[in-house]
User: Fold these one by one.
Assistant:
Number 1:
Amino acid sequence: MKGGQEISKTPSSSKRPMSSQGSVDIYAAQCKNCLKWRVIDTQEEFEEIRSKVSEEPFLCSRKANSSCDEPADIEYDSTRTWVIDKPNLPKTPQGFKRSLVLRKDYSKLDAYYITPAGKKLRTRNEIGAFLKENPQFEGVSVTDFDFSSPKIMQDTIPETVEQKDSANKKFKIAKDEV
Ligand SMILES: [Zn+2]
């Protein structure tokens, strides 16, 4: 399966009540060889891996002091909610930050960018206008920004979340194992 290995992020743990803003708190990548999940320390590093994951699949050895012989850093289970990014999303230009906010009903994550001066940009048009008004960001292009939202893994949505679609009830795994 080409490019089949996925990168995932986990927004809030299901153990604590969702704050008003559900956002990503841990980044992880799956090793192509052993399929274990490795925690990626920074968003920047995560985005670097994600930006070329098809050409350069993630391997445990890429992380310092890590190898396929080590136990996984984190297990994919319903103790937290997992969302899977599309592969090969562009790396966020320097100084900008990409943010994702989970809707309260877990139906979707909304992507937006924050400029170095702290302005929120929510659409490609806003990015275009911003870059036009701020010629100091030369070399940064609209194509460096991508608003695709990651896929929410239905089997990891906490039980307490009410969803319009009750179809995912069959996935309910009640245990918080640790
Ligand atoms: Zn491995």
Number 2:
Amino acid sequence: MRYSQSTLSLFAGLSSFSTIVNSQGGYYGSAPSASCKPSNTTVDLSWHAPVKSGINDLSTVINGTGIYGFVFNTSQGPLSTYDWCNMPHTNVHTYPKVNDSSYKLEYVEVIHRHHKRTPYAANTFPVESYSWDCSDEGLFFGGKPINPYGNDSASTYWEVYTSPSNPLVPEGFNGTCQFPQITRGGLDDSHQHGVDLKAVYSGMLGFIPEQYNRSLVSYRVTNNVITSQVASMLIAGMYPGRANRDTPLLIQPDSIDSLEPAYTCSSASHLFSSYGSGSSAPSWHQHLNDAASLYAKLDALSGVNPNASDWHMSFDHYFDNLSARLCHAKPLPCDIVNTTNCVTEAEANEVFRLGEYEYSFIYRDSNQSFPASVGSYGIWVAELAQNIRHAMGDGQSSVNATSPQIRYRHNVAHDGSISRLLAILQLDRMVWPGMGSEVVFELYSKSGCYFLRVLWGGQIMNSSNPSLGRLDMVPIDTILAYFDGLVGVGASKIPGICQTPECAVDGEGCA
Ligand SMILES: *[C@@H]1O[C@H](CO)[C@@H](O)[C@H](O)[C@H]1NC(C)=O
Ligand SMILES: *[C@@H]1O[C@H](CO)[C@@H](O)[C@H](O)[C@H]1NC(C)=O
Ligand SMILES: *[C@@H]1O[C@H](CO)[C@@H](O)[C@H](O)[C@H]1NC(C)=O
Ligand SMILES: *[C@@H]1O[C@H](CO)[C@@H](O)[C@H](O)[C@H]1NC(C)=O
Ligand SMILES: *[C@@H]1O[C@H](CO)[C@@H](O)[C@H](O)[C@H]1NC(C)=O
Ligand SMILES: *[C@@H]1O[C@H](CO)[C@@H](O)[C@H](O)[C@H]1NC(C)=O
Ligand SMILES: *[C@@H]1O[C@H](CO)[C@@H](O)[C@H](O)[C@H]1NC(C)=O
Ligand SMILES: *[C@@H]1O[C@H](CO)[C@@H](O)[C@H](O)[C@H]1NC(C)=O
Ligand SMILES: *[C@@H]1O[C@H](CO)[C@@H](O)[C@H](O)[C@H]1NC(C)=O
Ligand SMILES: *[C@@H]1O[C@H](CO)[C@@H](O)[C@H](O)[C@H]1NC(C)=O
Ligand SMILES: *[C@@H]1O[C@H](CO)[C@@H](O)[C@H](O)[C@H]1NC(C)=O
Ligand SMILES: *[C@@H]1O[C@H](CO)[C@@H](O)[C@H](O)[C@H]1NC(C)=O
């Protein structure tokens, strides 16, 4: 509780969060038109509660059945249905075509979660009853002289093995995988994701050319290698001519990576841990207490120590543990000794309902989700805003390493990235962003004015914030006033937001 007291005041500097700001902006193309400067752009920078649904209703979570029609056991779910293994994304069959042909697409920025993977080692049971093999794929690592090219290198990949002379047992499954790594199925899903985006933005809209052109298209990854594993397949899906060709992936230094995000934002970390996973907040503990009998069953069956705090401060570990199996057509686990005592489908569904509830709580239902997400993801949002400005002819882009003509930027990220972004956009119905979860920002011009459309899972996003509302051709002044009001141009507000002066002052430390 110490944190919740001091952290609330940490965000005192964010008093503008509950205010309405007036935008002075007014973006024109080459032919300024008076109608594109709104006479009164007022933007609401405060948090607004998401829609109430089964997902954030505890009695449905605890006493309900099923999992809202969501899919957890195949990458080939119906289009437009939540599929944890392979979330809906932009594709020619469901793309909401802009009917008014006077809107011209000017710039596209895509961000999505990586595709399906083996579980993180920390989420595997102490003893697994089966092994997991990844010998149907290679994880390539290597180096090669470029700028200028020198001698060629071999394309080297990892062959994971355990040694009979090494007496230690690895964390996680036996077998030939890293935990985590993108699986063969996840690589195939990544490839298809690229094929689908290309079919829309090149085949259908002619916005990007058929052939790869690094002056027009760029890709960015995080410091976690699984995003590069996805990008390598996705790019070849978009541009088959890229297969086995050298292709740059933009990446920021680990310590300041805004995409993952990996930069330090102490105030946001403390705020998250004051109300969410790991906190002692009663509003957080309620669902954990209500799920006591489920926990007892899962702990007894899996051998997880009921005292293991990382398994019991949230359902994250059990969720990953069970869903990763199902996405790869592996059975739900059974007791190692009493092999007829297995996790049932109903129990797995309850774990999934609890996980969805937790993400909704952490990123939308708690009003603290908003300042915590703004602090920890504000830099990426400022970069996006700068790329939008650049596309309108106003200043440099956020990436001066690439051509100034980039019109399609593609970011491969994580659930923590997508969740924070959805929190900032105030998605009306929050869910846990499954594998491949995608948000697309499309900038349009019309009669010299600019507008933004945002797609979530390939469909137009709805925000609970009244200034954003249905994110369909929102005047760019409104969007930029919202982003700038929260994070500042060039993320100028973020260093201040992220500081935790109280920790230094009250001598309690911030650990
Ligand atoms: C602008 O809009 C806000 C909110 O709708 C309203 O309160 C305010 O009076 C308006 N200002 C002007 C100058 O019209
Ligand atoms: C679930 O149902 C039980 C039995 O009816 C009830 O005691 C409990 O309060 C319910 N839990 C929630 C969170 O509604
Ligand atoms: C996935 O789960 C659903 C619901 O239990 C079931 O009907 C379906 O057959 C399963 N599909 C696969 C591929 O296992
Ligand atoms: C375009 O028009 C079709 C047919 O009226 C409609 O179904 C679709 O939703 C429209 N697209 C958008 C983006 O509004
Ligand atoms: C699930 O957790 C159990 C218990 O820690 C572990 O043995 C197992 O490897 C995990 N499996 C997955 C798929 O995460
Ligand atoms: C995993 O490997 C360890 C050490 O080699 C062995 O003791 C254990 O039985 C293996 N487990 C499975 C499920 O193969
Ligand atoms: C290629 O390798 C050979 C042998 O080490 C070396 O002599 C040569 O300079 C290298 N070429 C380049 C372009 O670096
Ligand atoms: C790539 O795009 C740039 C910018 O539009 C253009 O100047 C160049 O000719 C293109 N390159 C190719 C190979 O088409
Ligand atoms: C859990 O911790 C309590 C108190 O430290 C201890 O008495 C108990 O034996 C522990 N239980 C397990 C399963 O380790
Ligand atoms: C094994 O598990 C089954 C199903 O949970 C249970 O009915 C049975 O009593 C258990 N057997 C032993 C020996 O614990
Ligand atoms: C969250 O809501 C509570 C009460 O509803 C209020 O006291 C608190 O100031 C709000 N916090 C933020 C960060 O908006
Ligand atoms: C890119 O930006 C950095 C930091 O502002 C600057 O040092 C560098 O010279 C710039 N590079 C180019 C090519 O503009």
